[in-house]
Write a structure and sequence with these properties.
This protein has 241 residues and is an alpha+beta fold. It has one domain: Phosphatase 2c, domain 1 (4-Layer Sandwich). 34% of the residues lie in helices and 27% in strands. The strands form 2 sheets. Strands 2, 3, 4, 5, 6 and 9 form a 6-stranded antiparallel beta sheet that branches. The protein has a 5-stranded antiparallel beta sheet with strand order 1-11-10-7-8. Helix 1 packs antiparallel against helix 2.
Length: 241
C-alpha cells in the first residue's frame, strides 16, 4: 500500500486554494483527503487548509483512542471539519461565505470507505477499468441526472463549476459515503476539478497503468493539465491498494 500526491496553482490562478493530506496509520490502513476551497483567494485557501487539517487531526485522534469503525471515523472527522470551517466563516468577516469540497478515502485492508462533499472526485481503478465512485454535487450534475444535459454537454457547460453542496456552508454536513471491496493491484485516484475538467478518465487510466513508474503518475497527470492551460488549481492523489 502506497500513496502519492501533488498540488499546483495551475496556469491561470494566482493562488492555490487546494489542499491535501496523506496519513499512514499502519501497513494496511491509510487515509487520503483532498479539498478545493472557495470564497475568494484568501478565504478559499483558509477553508481547504482548515478542513484538511481538522479532518486529519480528528481522524487520527479517534484512531489513537481505539475507534475502528470506518463510517464513524470518516463521518465524525468530516463533521468536525465542517463545524470549524462554518464557525470561521460566520465569525471572520474576511472569510464570510467560504467553504470547500472534500473527498477522502480510508483503506482498511481489503475494504475502502470513500466520503465526498462537492465536486472533487474519487475514481476506482482496476487493471481493466476506471470508474467514478463519487457523484458531483453540482448544478450540471443535477441537470444530467434529470436528463436535461448529456455528460458531454455538462463537461463544457459554462456553469460546470457551480457546486450545490460544500463543507462549511451549512451547520450540518450531509456528505455521501461509499464502501468498496478492494484487492492488490487496484488504485484510488482523488482529484480536484482542476484535473477532472481537463483530463479524461481514459487518460487517467492509461497514466496509472501504462504511463511509466506509478510513483510518478501524479506528476504526469499534472503535466497534462498544465499543457492544456490548467485554468484552475490542480490536485492529484493516488492511493495503491
Amino acid at each position: 500500500m502506497n500513496m502519492w500526491g501533488i498540488t499546483d496553482r495551475g496556469v491561470v490562478r494566482e493562488e492555490n486554494q487546494d489542499a491535501y493530506a496523506l496519513l499512514r496509520l499502519t501497513d494496511t490502513q491509510q487515509l487520503a483527503v483532498v479539498c478545493d476551497g472557495m470564497g475568494g483567494a484568501r478565504a478559499g485557501n483558509v477553508a481547504s487548509t482548515m478542513a484538511v487539517e481538522e479532518f486529519s487531526n480528528v481522524f487520527s485522534a479517534l484512531w489513537d483512542a481505539g475507534e475502528r469503525a470506518a463510517d464513524v471515523l470518516m463521518q465524525t472527522a468530516a463533521s468536525q471539519a465542517n463545524d470549524e470551517v462554518h464557525h470561521r466563516a460566520m465569525t471572520d468577516g474576511a472569510c464570510r461565505g467560504m467553504g470547500t469540497t472534500m473527498v477522502a478515502v480510508f483503506l482498511d485492508g481489503s475494504r475502502a470507505t470513500v466520503l465526498n462533499e462537492g465536486d472533487s472526485r474519487a475514481y476506482f481503478i482496476t487493471p481493466e477499468s476506471i470508474s467514478q465512485v463519487t457523484q458531483d454535487h453540482s448544478l450540471v450534475e443535477d441537470l444530467v441526472r434529470r436528463g436535461e444535459l448529456t455528460p458531454e454537454q455538462a463537461r463544457i457547460h459554462p456553469n460546470k463549476n457551480l457546486i450545490t453542496r460544500a463543507l462549511g456552508s451549512e451547520t450540518v454536513l450531509h456528505a455521501d459515503m461509499f464502501e468498496l471491496e478492494v484487492e492488490r493491484g487496484q488504485f484510488f485516484l482523488l482529484c480536484s476539478d482542476g484535473l477532472s475538467n481537463v483530463v479524461s478518465e481514459q487518460e487517467m487510466l492509461y497514466e496509472i497503468l501504462h504511463g511509466g513508474p506509478v510513483e510518478e503518475c501524479c506528476e504526469r497527470l499534472l503535466e497534462i493539465a498544465i499543457k492544456r492551460g490548467a485554468p484552475d488549481n490542480v490536485t492529484v492523489v493516488l492511493v495503491e491498494c
